[in-house]
Design goal:
Shape: extended
Oligomer: single chain
Order of helices and strands: HHHHHH
Number of domains: 2
Strand content: under 5%
Number of helices: 6
Largest sheet: none
Helix content: 55-70%
Radius of gyration: 21 Å
Number of strands: 0
């Protein structure tokens, strides 16, 4: 059978592999059933759905004809680096690195860092728009996680709040 869309074929295989890994990992927890769900129920179902979606996409890539075979291009290393880097920066800013002496900067600073670094991945960078987006995300995250869900984690830098 000939692959008619390389992008969809590879994406489908990736979804299937990740779905199977999540479903398999969820079996280490108590799964329960639909009426009494255990901690492994949601990741198991999500993994199964992701694997099924991946199988459907892979099958479609083998059956549906696409223009020029929908070839896979080169990897976009710059955006990939900035997106992964922004997530790593978020984790470091949120909780700090005690072993290296980096203090926790809290949720607000971490969201600003994440937003500004991730925005560098695009073709255009408009600081004013990114600042507005970061402010909206910071306020929304504060309201959702700290006010409504009452989660306990640093909101402001530890050297300010003590």
């Amino acid at each position: 059978m000939k692959i008619k869309s390389q992008k969809d074929f590879v994406a489908g295989l990736m979804f299937t592999a990740v779905g199977i890994a999540f479903a398999w990992g969820a079996t280490n927890y108590t799964v329960g059933n639909g009426a009494r769900m255990g901690p492994g129920y949601f990741p198991l179902m999500l993994g199964i759905l992701l694997a099924a979606l991946g199988a459907i996409i892979t099958f479609t890539a083998l059956v549906v004809e696409t223009e020029n075979g929908d070839r896979i291009g080169s990897l976009a290393w710059k955006p990939l680096g900035f997106i992964i880097g922004s997530n790593i920066l978020f984790g470091i800013l949120l909780a700090g690195l005690p072993k290296l002496g980096v203090p926790a900067f809290g949720l607000i600073v971490a969201i600003y860092g994440l937003t500004f670094v991730a925005a560098l991945a695009g073709d255009e960078f408009k600081a004013k728009e990114v600042a507005i987006l970061a402010t909206v995300l910071a306020i929304g995250s504060y309201l959702a996680f700290v006010v409504l869900l009452k989660l306990q984690f640093p909101v402001w830098p530890s050297f300010i709040t003590g």
